[in-house]
Amino acid sequence: MKKIFLLLLLFLLNLFPNILFAESVHFESTSMNGDKQKIWIDIIKNKNTPAPSILILHGCGGVDDHHRKWADIIVSWGYNAIVVDSFSGLIEKVVCKDMSQSSPIIRSSHAHSVATWVSQQNWSTKKIGTIGFSHGGWTVLYLTTDTIRASYPNSNIVSSVAYYPYCGSDFSINQRLGTPIQIHIGELDDWTLAKYCERLGRIKERLKNNLFIYKDAHHSFDRINTKYTYMSGTGAKTIESNPAARELSIKRTKEFFEKTLK
Asked: Which residue of 25, 100, 134, 214 pairs with 245 in a disulfide if CB–CB is 3.0 to 4.6 A?
C-alpha cells in the first residue's frame, strides 16, 4: 500500500511539476476600522520558492472549482496561488441575489490583510498580485485605489486583474487607481455591463491598453463547458463559456503579470 501511494505521488508530481499541495489556513483579516474577521485561505505554493504570489478573489457564489483551476494555471506560470474565501463562516455562501451581504470594501480588507501576511512568508517575495472574478473583480477595482491602499501600506499588492467586474460604481470612477490593472469583460455580458468598463477605461490612465472587451462573450466566459441562465436579484442573466475568449484572456493575463509582477 505504501509503495502504491508513493508511485501515485510521483505520478502527480510529474503531471504537475510546479505544484505543491494546498494548505488551508483560518486567517484573521483586519478591516480598515480595526475589526477582526476570520476567513479561510488556501495556499498552493510553486515548487520553486520564493516566488511572487497571486490572490484569487471569487465571485458572488463563493469558491468553486473554477477558482481552483485558475490556481493551477497561476502556479504553472511560476507563482504561488492564494485562494481567498471571503464568505465561508461569515455569511451565506451565495450573495448573488443580495450583494449587500458582502461589500467590495470589506473584501478589499480581506485581500490586503492576506497580502500583508503573504509578503512576510519565506516562500513568497514581496510582490503580490490579485485576480478577481465578477464580485471579486469589483473588489479588485476597489483594492487598487489609493484610498484603500493607504490603510494597508505593507500589503505589497502591485498588480491586479479583474474579470467581468462591475465598473459602474461612483467609488471606482472617482478614485485614483494606484497600481497597474487589467480588465477582461464580454461584449454580451448582461450582468456586469461592458459599457460601464468602457466608460471607466476612458477616464483612467491605468486602463489605457489594458481593457479588453470580447466579442460574442457573456458573463463568466472563462469558465469551462458552462451555459445556463441565472435568476439574479435583477433578473435573468446569461452565464456562458467562450473558449476563444478564455484562451486569449489567459494569454493576456499571463503577459500582464509577467510585465508587472516578476
From this structure: 214
